[in-house]
């Protein structure tokens, strides 16, 4: 490994950095960071002030000075930011073959990889609240059991419903980012600790119980969900029993999005720096904290970051290069801070009023078309949404206009399980399986139907679903043999087995029966067969499954009985009402916000039928064609439809922000400062043009728009451009 001579900069190199980027000349501030001798360099700066670019310069400089790319690691909070930095290395002119060898990853991914090395194997990863919820329920049941055994059982708040479980899981994640261990001090009680943490006693008791379960029976951690790895690694590194486990020894450690760090990720970073005796450079912007839900802890970072380190240089990047003075001034007004533009460009900022969502979608589309008409690249235009479920009207408008769109941070609403499920219902009602193109899509539809009918099927049975998806006859058999048939004890048992296991079980039964017969034990044979007969005929479905089955049968009848020339949306509205999807969503999804999304995406789906005005069969045909068209459009340049979180770190020639209404952005019920940070992130993604879509009624307009003091910013911006520097 290349050691200490690799980064400290000789005076000659300081005067003229050896790495020269392509396409721009670094400012003195950038050069200072690129070539600095200090072991720790920290740069906090505004949006667009070249943080990512300068970190890329620093990396390229290290490589130019002989550090192997493999000895450099970039850590970020979001995967997108890691990708952006890796791309930026190439954009500034570092050879792609070198850039690709630099490890750019998230803190949690890094922690997961490190734990895999330390523990010598993979730990199952649960990637959603839905996947973790059964463990929470089991822990609640265990706590209730233990509590009942006490001489005087305590009154504990324990989550029962999905929404409460979601709240608990969010709280548990916060505790972990703060490195709150489940263990108690000597003589400390659970109630005392809960009190100190300012959380209900039951919540802390459950946190302890769940962590105990996750810890496994002494044979290692039994599962992890998001951010658990960072917490586990931080705990392991800080355990204090002997030397900490070895981490990969990096010579240069780079952190982008520094503001999103928390005590757990900081603990991992400190060890990484210490073990590799690494040089550190980090950059961030406190106004871009939008991940407090995931433990981003500004006060901790402000007060602790680098506090115990020696040889720390805090440097600044004062100019934004992303946009011209008008936008810089609007941002300065919005965040009440100094923002200076280093770009001579007259940014266009337009505010447009809309009457309703459909109108906002049409105006968004008009902006995109105008951008395209002026010869600008579609993929340099982004529509940024506060909430993923606001995409529906816009997706419909883009699709109808033949504009291809790619999504980040959200799922196209056509692929949401509730819409896939409805498409399955339509296909079954019309007996037109071809309306769902391709076996892959049909498989997704079958899986969505399973989910919505609240049926469980062993993962090993996915193969059966795949086969059903390829053959129309089996697709139909799935409807009658699985979805519309009351589940029996035998079905239940079979569902838990793979196809091979089921065959083996049947074979075992036959062998047993024939052996008993050979041995003349007829009574036992009869008993065996009676048991089997009973299992095959005893209905064993939950009330929810029965309700879902009857509702599905009724919805199919409604669609089949619809007059052939009736516009599809009327029959669909009746079917959707019968399916009662909102209530089912509240049961299936852990986060209550999901139930709202379900209602909105179904409404969007029915709305596309309403606008088309055609009968069901033609609507199904249109869906198929629309889907094929979409796939075709995606191969060309596409406009980006994304959430604020996904847009972070990126930049676009044109940015459109629709639905800027009080209650929608800022989103009702969310922390106001964080909402303001989100708006700051979203609006500062623009390079040349920004469109702000606001409601017609002035009283409903998002206060964020007024806070930008646009008229003033644009007038002063123009003046700045006209005045020679
Ligand atoms: N010296 C320079 N001259 C001109 N343009 C520059 C210079 N340095 C960086 N840029 C450009 O400025 C823009 C913003 O840079 P960058 O993305 O690095 O900012 P950032 O601070 O990381 O932004 P954010 O935090 O908002 O994601 C990019 O288009 C980049 O190419």
UniProtKB/TrEMBL annotation:
GO terms for molecular function: 3'-5' DNA helicase activity; ATP binding; ATP hydrolysis activity; DNA binding. The keyword Isomerase applies. Residues 318-649 form the UvrD-like helicase C-terminal domain. Pfam families: UvrD-helicase, UvrD_C. Residues 616-643 form a coiled coil. Residues 1-25 are annotated as: Disordered. Residues 24-324 form the UvrD-like helicase ATP-binding domain. The keyword Nucleotide-binding applies. The lineage of its organism: Bacteria, Pseudomonadati, Pseudomonadota, Betaproteobacteria, Rhodocyclales. This is DNA 3'-5' helicase.
């Amino acid at each position: 490994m290349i050691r200490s001579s690799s980064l400290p900069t000789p005076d000659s190199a300081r005067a003229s950095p050896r790495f020269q980027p392509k396409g721009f000349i670094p400012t003195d501030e950038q050069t200072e960071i690129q070539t600095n001798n200090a072991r720790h360099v920290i740069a906090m700066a505004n949006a667009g002030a070249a943080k990512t670019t300068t970190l890329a310069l620093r990396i390229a400089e290290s490589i130019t000075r002989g550090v192997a790319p493999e000895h450099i690691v970039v850590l970020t909070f979001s995967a997108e930011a890691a990708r952006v930095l890796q791309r930026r290395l190439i954009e500034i002119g570092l050879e792609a073959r070198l850039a690709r060898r630099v490890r750019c990853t998230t803190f949690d991914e890094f922690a997961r990889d490190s734990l895999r090395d330390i523990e010598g194997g993979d730990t199952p990863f649960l990637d959603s609240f839905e996947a973790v919820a059964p463990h929470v329920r089991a822990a609640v049941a265990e706590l209730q059991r233990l509590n009942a055994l006490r001489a005087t059982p305590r009154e504990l708040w324990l989550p029962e419903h999905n929404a409460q479980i979601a709240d608990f899981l969010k709280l548990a994640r916060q505790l972990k980012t703060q490195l709150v261990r489940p263990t108690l001090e000597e003589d400390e009680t659970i109630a005392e600790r809960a009190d100190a943490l300012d959380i209900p006693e039951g919540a802390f008791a459950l946190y302890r119980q769940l962590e105990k379960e996750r810890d496994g029976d002494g044979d290692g951690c039994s599962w992890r969900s998001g951010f658990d790895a960072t917490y586990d690694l931080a705990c392991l590194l800080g355990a204090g029993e002997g030397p900490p486990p070895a981490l990969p020894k990096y010579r240069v450690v780079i952190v982008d999005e520094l503001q999103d760090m928390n005590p757990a990720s900081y603990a991992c970073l400190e060890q990484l720096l210490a073990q590799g005796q690494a040089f550190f450079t980090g950059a961030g912007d406190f106004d871009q904290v939008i991940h407090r839900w995931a433990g981003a802890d500004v006060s901790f970072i402000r007060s602790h970051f680098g506090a115990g380190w020696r040889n720390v240089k805090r440097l600044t990047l004062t100019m934004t290069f992303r946009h011209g003075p008008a936008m810089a001034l609007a941002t300065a007004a919005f965040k009440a801070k100094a923002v200076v533009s280093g770009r001579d460009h007259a940014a266009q900022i337009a505010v447009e009023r809309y009457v309703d969502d459909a109108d906002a979608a049409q105006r968004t589309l008009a902006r995109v078309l105008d951008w395209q008409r002026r010869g600008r690249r579609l993929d340099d235009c982004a529509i940024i949404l506060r909430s993923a479920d606001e995409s529906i009207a816009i997706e419909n408008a883009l699709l109808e206009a033949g504009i291809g769109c790619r999504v980040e941070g959200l799922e196209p609403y056509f692929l949401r399980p509730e819409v896939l499920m409805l498409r399955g219902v339509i296909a079954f009602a019309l007996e037109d399986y071809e309306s769902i193109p391709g076996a892959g899509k049909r498989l997704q539809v079958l899986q969505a139907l399973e989910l919505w009918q609240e049926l469980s099927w062993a993962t090993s049975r996915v193969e059966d679903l795949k086969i059903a998806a390829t053959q129309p006859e089996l697709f139909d058999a799935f409807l009658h043999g699985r979805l519309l048939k009351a589940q029996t004890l035998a079905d239940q048992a079979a569902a838990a087995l793979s196809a091979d296991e089921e065959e083996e079980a049947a074979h075992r039964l036959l062998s047993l029966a024939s052996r008993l017969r050979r041995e003349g034990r007829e009574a036992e044979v009869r008993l065996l067969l009676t048991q089997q007969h009973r299992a095959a005929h005893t209905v064993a479905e939950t009330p929810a499954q029965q309700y879902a089955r009857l509702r599905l049968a009724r919805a199919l009848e409604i669609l089949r009985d619809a007059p052939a020339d009736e516009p599809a949306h009327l029959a669909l509205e009746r079917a959707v009402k019968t399916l009662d999807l909102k209530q089912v969503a509240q049961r299936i999804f852990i986060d209550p916000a999901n139930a709202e999304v379900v209602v909105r995406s179904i409404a969007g789906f029915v709305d596309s039928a309403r606008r088309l005005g055609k009968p069901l069969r033609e609507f199904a045909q249109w869906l198929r064609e629309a889907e094929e068209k979409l796939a075709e459009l995606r191969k060309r340049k596409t406009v980006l439809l994304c959430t604020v979180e996904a847009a972070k770190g990126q930049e676009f020639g044109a940015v459109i922000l629709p639905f800027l209404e009080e209650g929608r952005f800022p989103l009702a019920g969310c922390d106001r400062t964080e909402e303001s940070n989100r708006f700051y992130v979203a609006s500062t993604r623009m390079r040349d043009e920004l469109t702000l879509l606001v409601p017609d009624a002035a009283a409903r307009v998002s206060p964020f728009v007024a806070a930008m003091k646009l008229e003033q910013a644009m007038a002063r911006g123009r003046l700045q451009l006209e005045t020679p520097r």
